[in-house]
Amino acid sequence: MADRSFSFICGTDDFWVSREAKTTFEDLSKDVADPEFGLEVVNGAAGNVSEVEDAVNRFSSAVQTLSLFGDKKVVWFKDITFLADSVTGRAEGTLHQVERLKELLGSLDPASVTVLMSASPVDRRRAFLKWCEKNSNYTLADSGKPAEQEAHLRELVQKEALAMGIEIPFNLVTILLGKLNGNARLAMEEVRKLATYIGDSGESVTEELLNSLVPNFGEGDFFEPVEAFYSLNLEWTLDSLRRYFFIAKDSRPLLSSLQNRNRLMIQMKALTMSGQIRLGPRGLEKSSLERAAQIHAGAFAGETGKSSFNVFTQNPWYLGRLAAPLNKLSLKHLVDFQKEFLRGFKEILSRPTEQPEAMREMMVRCLSR
Predict the structure, then answer these.
(1) Between the CA of residue 151 and those of 81, 104, 174, 287, what are the distances in Å?
(2) Residue 13: phi, psi to the nearest 5?
(3) How many domains does one find in the chain?
(4) Whole domain around residue 278: which residue ranges?
(5) Does a structural domain hold residue 120?
(6) Structure confidence at residue 2 (pLDDT)
(7) What does the pLDDT read at residue 43?
(8) What pLDDT shows up at residue 171?
(9) What is the mean pLDDT of each run of 10 residues along the chain (369 residues)?
(10) 42 domain-assigned
(11) Do 255 and 213 share a structural domain?
(12) What pLDDT, on a 0 to 100 scale, did the predictor assign at position 151?
């Protein structure tokens, strides 16, 4: 790492940014003789321009005030939120404060003060971010490939679970992360909630327990009605749909999840019919998926993020789980499902006050064929 006057850690996920910054701050603090006077943390969270100005003022005071005994000082400007593409981030007053911050950072004396900054989310298109990349020890905390990030998060979840006295098997970690749409901070909180619920009862973590205790977050693929629908069990599907609408009011997240699942299943069905991927007793054969990915790499050029439009960006175990009903479904069935989902979307637009009824009718049409 280049010897620069300050360190800057940023990313889209505040969990990874905070974790990386905390580790860096601990490393920078090791040589501070008197932590009470030589370490200072300034909170950079701001909801309006006035709070941005206050945060920058406090940071300015921190970096310009020497340690009581004249030793080198370490200042952490943490949880900065005003560098995002937001109303506050775009405000003229905020941009003025950011320019002021840039001047402060450019005039730092590394011999007397070490500065660490952590920010999430950030707009990397901004000139200040580009300047930081060139002039700091810059770290993009969540820059790894999606598969690497998922593997890292999976490991953290299992370690946290063991530390809390419970065990979550590999397949259930996949379900947990799917329900939470890969949100790392929520995953840690839900593990703690599961551990608290189980307590000293000795009860195991099961899929049923996850479905009952862990909420769906964002556009995850693990709404219970989606699981029920692809089990091809109409009774369970309608029952889960009733539970869904007991809490939710809008059908669109459910339709989106159904369409995302169906896109992947159409791709897998086509690949299994052509013999390019194989399903065994333990699920999808990973080596055949990797070979197929190489064959079709050109068709997905530039697509690196996890997406339902590209089956090869998905976890092989997850795909094997989705593939379970494929032997009962033809390609025509899956295409017909997609048509029905489109029809269902049109119906909820025309019947916005009758969304539960429209969804039930759609489910019956799909599963009664």
Answers:
(1) 27, 39, 10, 18
(2) -105, 115
(3) 3
(4) 246-367
(5) yes
(6) 42
(7) 95
(8) 81
(9) 76 88 93 82 94 96 78 91 93 96 92 92 92 93 67 87 90 82 84 90 83 70 78 90 82 90 93 88 79 84 70 81 87 95 94 93 91
(10) yes
(11) no
(12) 78
306 in a domain, yes or no? yes
| One domain for residues 120 and 79 | yes
Pair (186, 273) in one structural domain: no
Quick one: three-class SS letters along the chain?
CCCCCEEEEECCCHHHHHHHHHHHHHHHHCCCCCHHHHEEEEECCCCCHHHHHHHHHHHHHHHHCCCCCCCCEEEEEEEECCCCCCHHHHCHHHHHHHHHHHHHHHCCCCCCEEEEEEECCCCCCCHHHHHHHHHCEEEECCCCCHHHHHHHHHHHHHHHHHHCCCCCCHHHHHHHHHHCCCCHHHHHHHHHHHHHHHCCCCCCCCHHHHHHHCCCCCCCCCCHHHHHHHCCCHHHHHHHHHHHHHHCCCCHHHHHHHHHHHHHHHHHHHHHHCCCCCEECCEECHHHHHHHHHHCHHHHCCCCCCECCEHHHCCHHHHHHHCHHHHHCCHHHHHHHHHHHHHHHHHHHHCHHHHHHHHHHHHHHHHCC
**Final residue belonging to a domain, choices 140, 174, 208:** 140
**Residue 284: burial class (beta carbons within 10 Å; 0-12, 13-18, 19+):** buried
121 and 16 in one domain? yes
Say whether both 109 and 150 belong to one domain.
no
Assign residue 24 the CATH number of its domain.
3.40.50.300
Both tokens assigned to 293: 């990915």
pLDDT at 293: 87
pLDDT for residue 191: 93
| pLDDT reported for residue 221 | 52
Say yes or no: 88 and 192 in one domain.
no
pLDDT at 184: 84
By the 8 A CB rule, do 186 and 223 touch?
no
